[in-house]
């Protein structure tokens, strides 16, 4: 073996590129037998990520445990491990040997080995045997999702006992947790994991009360090295915890803010203004507001070179939110001279529940959305706002030239009348946006002269289109045009919200889908599709 391969750093790179789910678990085992110098690094790679503790417990003596196939809480068959006797100190040698190698626990993997879930009684027995020592002393990242777990579990209070001071990232998705249970859990985590830099906490079916908010606030304020935080439900804008987050020197990701209608504008400006040194390293920011002009004020105040910005406005309303159209123009114009104009790569504005007080002129609509062209580095745009169906071929042509690095474009909303964008209007996106692989737009599907498409220019990355409310004429000809632009297209995913025209349009798109399927089925052995279907 070359001496360079004896270096642990080089070995780590080698095994980091060999994924067991791609090449089979035997690959790493064979390498360890081929060269004993690979053994430790290969074992580190094999044991680095585990979805459950099942595999680890199975290295303990075989007479200690047994597995059975039972029905989970969704009636699916799952394999459950239980202990058959009490633990002894001699049972732990192999467990400790492999436990030191585990870096991530609870994250879904594509590992080919079957998943084995540990019964609560077995987990509690493991923790009770060594109450003062973490089971996984070198663990760095931990995830627990109650509502995805197939077992009915009562082990939530015992989770901190798995963890030690090496943990830097925790993701907890909890279902119907009690306040005292949440308080005990978060209090233990802040003591056992003082080095936490990433927290993802989502509470589902848990009432938002002053008590739960207070518990979460105390937990967050105990963490001074945070780099990323996501809280669901979000904290209110008046929370003193937000000031703590705003003053953290390394915070880069913040998904935790909910702005009510009656929020104090001056207070918001003070919280987010860059002049006061708030959020000095913020790069990824997501927040919920109830009005577009609130979002505009926050973005205008936060003069930071953001990389991702996501705004949901308004949040959680069952009925439409009526807002003035000028507030949209105010929001989009604030990007023109913003610090993120040359850095923002991902922008999402979800105004699904918005309706405007007045019907604006076509020029006003175009002007409001054209202000986004000042974002020169944009790679992903996702906007669900009224009147996006009024944007025509010229607007999308300008967008394609303004955003050549686009990988994802989603511009959609329930439209009023026939959309102004035509199928031919997608040509500039094919020509200028060479990295585009996701496209969701509303257009009028009318066939165009294929001579409009430059020779040899097409998009091979897009295999399906997510189409909403797109009227269609001449499905066969439209299919020919779509395939000229997107040769690897296999489906359209058409969805309609216009019930009066749904049946006719549905039949036309269904015909196009059938033609696509015929084309796929007619592919020859070389993989080249039969174009004569069209």
TrEMBL record:
The family database entries (InterPro entries) matched by this protein are listed as: LRR_dom_sf
What is the name listed in the Swiss-Prot or TrEMBL entry for this protein?
Answer: F-box domain-containing protein
